[in-house]
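User: Please run a holo structure prediction.
Assistant: Happy to. Please share the sequence and the ligand.
User: Here you go; the ligand is NAI.
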Amino acid sequence: MQKKKISKAVINRLPRYYRYLGDLLEKDVVRISSKELSEKMKVTASQIRQDLNNFGGFGQQGYGYNVEYLHSEIGKILGLEKQYNIIIIGAGNLGQALANYADFERRGFIVKGIFDINPKLIGMSVRGIEIKNMDELEDFVRNNQVDIAALTLPKAKAPQVASDLVKWGIKGIWNFAPTDLHLPDDVVVENVHLSDSLMKLSYKLSEKRKLAD
Ligand code: NAI
Protein backbone atom coordinates (compact mmCIF):
# COMPACT_ATOMS: atom_id res chain seq x y z
CA MET A 1 0.00 0.00 0.00
CA GLN A 2 2.55 2.62 1.10
CA LYS A 3 5.09 3.45 -1.56
CA LYS A 4 6.66 6.63 -0.23
CA LYS A 5 8.79 6.65 2.89
CA ILE A 6 6.72 7.48 5.95
CA SER A 7 8.42 9.59 8.58
CA LYS A 8 9.31 8.08 11.95
CA ALA A 9 7.18 10.70 13.70
CA VAL A 10 4.08 9.55 11.80
CA ILE A 11 4.80 5.89 12.50
CA ASN A 12 5.24 6.76 16.18
CA ARG A 13 1.78 8.33 16.23
CA LEU A 14 -0.04 5.45 14.51
CA PRO A 15 -0.29 3.13 17.53
CA ARG A 16 -1.97 5.95 19.42
CA TYR A 17 -4.53 6.47 16.62
CA TYR A 18 -5.07 2.74 16.58
CA ARG A 19 -5.65 2.64 20.34
CA TYR A 20 -8.10 5.56 20.30
CA LEU A 21 -10.03 4.15 17.38
CA GLY A 22 -10.13 0.78 19.14
CA ASP A 23 -11.68 2.48 22.19
CA LEU A 24 -14.25 4.18 19.96
CA LEU A 25 -15.08 0.87 18.30
CA GLU A 26 -15.69 -0.69 21.69
CA LYS A 27 -18.16 2.11 22.36
CA ASP A 28 -19.89 1.34 19.04
CA VAL A 29 -18.94 4.70 17.53
CA VAL A 30 -19.41 4.37 13.77
CA ARG A 31 -17.86 7.57 12.50
CA ILE A 32 -15.86 10.51 13.76
CA SER A 33 -14.80 13.84 12.28
CA SER A 34 -11.15 14.83 12.31
CA LYS A 35 -12.18 17.69 14.62
CA GLU A 36 -13.70 15.29 17.20
CA LEU A 37 -10.77 12.92 16.89
CA SER A 38 -8.41 15.86 17.33
CA GLU A 39 -10.21 17.01 20.48
CA LYS A 40 -10.06 13.53 21.94
CA MET A 41 -6.43 12.97 21.08
CA LYS A 42 -5.20 16.53 21.67
CA VAL A 43 -3.59 16.58 18.24
CA THR A 44 -4.60 19.25 15.72
CA ALA A 45 -7.16 18.22 13.09
CA SER A 46 -4.72 19.22 10.38
CA GLN A 47 -2.04 16.99 11.91
CA ILE A 48 -4.47 14.07 11.79
CA ARG A 49 -5.37 14.81 8.17
CA GLN A 50 -1.71 15.16 7.24
CA ASP A 51 -0.77 11.94 9.02
CA LEU A 52 -3.54 9.94 7.40
CA ASN A 53 -2.93 11.48 3.98
CA ASN A 54 0.38 9.62 4.02
CA PHE A 55 -1.67 6.47 3.56
CA GLY A 56 -4.29 7.76 1.16
CA GLY A 57 -6.53 9.74 3.49
CA PHE A 58 -9.37 7.39 4.50
CA GLY A 59 -11.66 10.35 5.28
CA GLN A 60 -14.61 11.69 3.30
CA GLN A 61 -15.51 15.34 3.09
CA GLY A 62 -18.57 16.03 5.26
CA TYR A 63 -18.58 12.52 6.72
CA GLY A 64 -15.34 12.27 8.65
CA TYR A 65 -13.78 8.91 9.22
CA ASN A 66 -15.44 5.54 9.40
CA VAL A 67 -14.03 4.28 12.70
CA GLU A 68 -14.01 0.58 11.87
CA TYR A 69 -12.45 1.12 8.46
CA LEU A 70 -9.80 3.54 9.73
CA HIS A 71 -8.98 1.23 12.65
CA SER A 72 -8.58 -1.71 10.33
CA GLU A 73 -6.52 0.24 7.75
CA ILE A 74 -4.15 1.57 10.41
CA GLY A 75 -3.95 -1.97 11.80
CA LYS A 76 -2.88 -3.16 8.32
CA ILE A 77 -0.24 -0.40 8.09
CA LEU A 78 1.08 -1.47 11.47
CA GLY A 79 1.17 -5.06 10.25
CA LEU A 80 -1.41 -6.16 12.80
CA GLU A 81 -3.51 -8.23 10.43
CA LYS A 82 -1.09 -11.07 10.98
CA GLN A 83 -0.28 -13.07 14.11
CA TYR A 84 3.21 -12.78 15.62
CA ASN A 85 4.70 -15.54 17.70
CA ILE A 86 6.91 -14.31 20.51
CA ILE A 87 9.45 -15.94 22.77
CA ILE A 88 10.73 -14.36 25.96
CA ILE A 89 14.36 -14.81 26.95
CA GLY A 90 14.86 -14.27 30.68
CA ALA A 91 11.99 -15.26 32.95
CA GLY A 92 12.70 -12.87 35.81
CA ASN A 93 10.56 -9.96 36.97
CA LEU A 94 10.16 -8.31 33.60
CA GLY A 95 9.98 -11.48 31.50
CA GLN A 96 7.21 -12.88 33.70
CA ALA A 97 5.38 -9.56 33.70
CA LEU A 98 5.37 -9.55 29.89
CA ALA A 99 4.26 -13.18 29.76
CA ASN A 100 1.47 -12.42 32.22
CA TYR A 101 0.11 -9.55 30.17
CA ALA A 102 -2.66 -11.31 28.29
CA ASP A 103 -3.65 -8.22 26.32
CA PHE A 104 -0.80 -8.60 23.83
CA GLU A 105 -2.66 -11.63 22.52
CA ARG A 106 -5.69 -9.54 21.73
CA ARG A 107 -3.44 -7.64 19.33
CA GLY A 108 -2.13 -10.85 17.81
CA PHE A 109 1.16 -11.21 19.69
CA ILE A 110 1.21 -14.74 21.07
CA VAL A 111 3.77 -15.85 23.63
CA LYS A 112 4.91 -19.31 22.51
CA GLY A 113 7.86 -19.88 24.81
CA ILE A 114 9.81 -18.55 27.79
CA PHE A 115 13.44 -19.43 28.39
CA ASP A 116 15.85 -19.02 31.29
CA ILE A 117 19.02 -20.52 32.73
CA ASN A 118 17.90 -20.57 36.36
CA PRO A 119 17.06 -24.18 37.38
CA LYS A 120 14.63 -22.84 40.00
CA LEU A 121 12.52 -21.27 37.27
CA ILE A 122 12.76 -23.98 34.62
CA GLY A 123 9.60 -26.11 34.59
CA MET A 124 7.48 -23.42 36.22
CA SER A 125 4.52 -22.07 34.27
CA VAL A 126 3.55 -18.49 33.58
CA ARG A 127 -0.04 -18.17 32.33
CA GLY A 128 0.15 -21.80 31.25
CA ILE A 129 3.43 -21.36 29.36
CA GLU A 130 6.26 -23.50 30.68
CA ILE A 131 9.64 -21.88 31.31
CA LYS A 132 12.17 -23.89 29.33
CA ASN A 133 15.90 -24.30 29.68
CA MET A 134 18.07 -22.20 27.37
CA ASP A 135 19.54 -25.51 26.11
CA GLU A 136 16.27 -26.03 24.26
CA LEU A 137 16.24 -22.61 22.64
CA GLU A 138 18.00 -23.42 19.36
CA ASP A 139 15.76 -26.42 18.61
CA PHE A 140 12.69 -24.43 19.55
CA VAL A 141 13.56 -21.51 17.28
CA ARG A 142 14.57 -23.74 14.38
CA ASN A 143 11.43 -25.90 14.63
CA ASN A 144 8.76 -23.32 15.37
CA GLN A 145 7.66 -20.20 13.59
CA VAL A 146 9.02 -17.51 15.93
CA ASP A 147 8.73 -13.93 14.74
CA ILE A 148 9.90 -11.92 17.73
CA ALA A 149 12.21 -12.55 20.67
CA ALA A 150 11.81 -10.35 23.73
CA LEU A 151 15.11 -9.95 25.58
CA THR A 152 14.54 -9.59 29.30
CA LEU A 153 17.83 -10.98 30.53
CA PRO A 154 20.88 -9.20 32.00
CA LYS A 155 22.50 -6.72 29.64
CA ALA A 156 25.85 -8.50 29.63
CA LYS A 157 24.15 -11.60 28.18
CA ALA A 158 21.88 -9.88 25.67
CA PRO A 159 24.29 -9.32 22.71
CA GLN A 160 25.39 -12.96 22.48
CA VAL A 161 21.86 -14.31 22.87
CA ALA A 162 20.60 -11.84 20.26
CA SER A 163 23.26 -12.86 17.78
CA ASP A 164 22.49 -16.57 18.32
CA LEU A 165 18.78 -15.92 17.82
CA VAL A 166 19.50 -14.12 14.56
CA LYS A 167 21.75 -16.98 13.41
CA TRP A 168 18.84 -19.35 14.02
CA GLY A 169 16.46 -17.20 11.97
CA ILE A 170 14.80 -14.61 14.22
CA LYS A 171 14.10 -11.32 12.44
CA GLY A 172 12.48 -9.27 15.20
CA ILE A 173 14.08 -8.37 18.54
CA TRP A 174 12.15 -6.58 21.29
CA ASN A 175 15.07 -5.48 23.39
CA PHE A 176 14.53 -4.51 27.03
CA ALA A 177 18.14 -5.03 28.08
CA PRO A 178 19.82 -1.65 28.50
CA THR A 179 22.44 -2.23 25.84
CA ASP A 180 22.78 -1.52 22.12
CA LEU A 181 22.62 -4.53 19.86
CA HIS A 182 24.59 -4.59 16.63
CA LEU A 183 22.74 -6.92 14.32
CA PRO A 184 22.43 -7.34 10.54
CA ASP A 185 20.26 -4.82 8.67
CA ASP A 186 17.54 -7.34 7.89
CA VAL A 187 16.82 -7.72 11.61
CA VAL A 188 14.39 -5.29 13.18
CA VAL A 189 15.26 -4.20 16.71
CA GLU A 190 12.84 -2.24 18.86
CA ASN A 191 14.44 -1.00 22.07
CA VAL A 192 12.23 -0.33 25.07
CA HIS A 193 13.83 1.62 27.87
CA LEU A 194 11.46 2.64 30.63
CA SER A 195 14.27 4.58 32.29
CA ASP A 196 14.52 6.85 29.21
CA SER A 197 10.87 7.63 29.65
CA LEU A 198 11.41 8.32 33.36
CA MET A 199 14.26 10.67 32.53
CA LYS A 200 11.98 12.57 30.14
CA LEU A 201 9.45 12.82 32.94
CA SER A 202 12.09 14.12 35.36
CA TYR A 203 13.23 16.65 32.73
CA LYS A 204 9.66 17.94 32.33
CA LEU A 205 9.19 18.11 36.10
CA SER A 206 12.42 20.02 36.57
CA GLU A 207 11.44 22.47 33.78
CA LYS A 208 8.13 23.07 35.56
CA ARG A 209 9.93 23.59 38.86
CA LYS A 210 12.24 26.15 37.22
CA LEU A 211 9.22 28.05 35.88
CA ALA A 212 7.58 28.03 39.31
CA ASP A 213 10.75 29.32 41.08
P1 NAI B 1 15.69 -10.41 36.77
O1 NAI B 1 17.00 -10.60 37.42
O2 NAI B 1 14.45 -10.52 37.59
O3 NAI B 1 15.53 -11.42 35.52
C1 NAI B 1 16.57 -11.73 34.65
C2 NAI B 1 16.42 -13.20 34.27
O4 NAI B 1 17.33 -13.51 33.23
C3 NAI B 1 16.71 -14.15 35.44
O5 NAI B 1 15.63 -15.04 35.64
C4 NAI B 1 17.98 -14.87 35.01
O6 NAI B 1 18.03 -16.20 35.48
C5 NAI B 1 17.84 -14.81 33.50
N1 NAI B 1 19.10 -15.00 32.79
C6 NAI B 1 20.36 -14.64 33.16
N2 NAI B 1 21.25 -14.99 32.22
C7 NAI B 1 20.52 -15.57 31.23
C8 NAI B 1 20.89 -16.17 30.00
N3 NAI B 1 22.16 -16.19 29.55
N4 NAI B 1 19.91 -16.68 29.23
C9 NAI B 1 18.63 -16.67 29.66
N5 NAI B 1 18.23 -16.14 30.82
C10 NAI B 1 19.18 -15.60 31.59
O7 NAI B 1 15.77 -8.99 36.07
P2 NAI B 1 14.59 -8.08 35.53
O8 NAI B 1 14.25 -7.06 36.51
O9 NAI B 1 13.49 -8.94 34.98
O10 NAI B 1 15.32 -7.35 34.33
C11 NAI B 1 15.67 -8.09 33.17
C12 NAI B 1 16.39 -7.22 32.15
O11 NAI B 1 15.51 -6.17 31.75
C13 NAI B 1 17.63 -6.53 32.69
O12 NAI B 1 18.55 -6.40 31.63
C14 NAI B 1 17.13 -5.16 33.12
O13 NAI B 1 18.14 -4.19 33.10
C15 NAI B 1 16.11 -4.92 32.03
N6 NAI B 1 15.04 -4.01 32.39
C16 NAI B 1 14.66 -3.17 31.42
C17 NAI B 1 13.64 -2.30 31.61
C18 NAI B 1 13.28 -1.45 30.47
O14 NAI B 1 12.54 -0.51 30.61
N7 NAI B 1 13.80 -1.72 29.33
C19 NAI B 1 12.89 -2.22 32.87
C20 NAI B 1 13.32 -3.22 33.82
C21 NAI B 1 14.36 -4.07 33.57
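The first strand starts at residue 31 and ends at 32.
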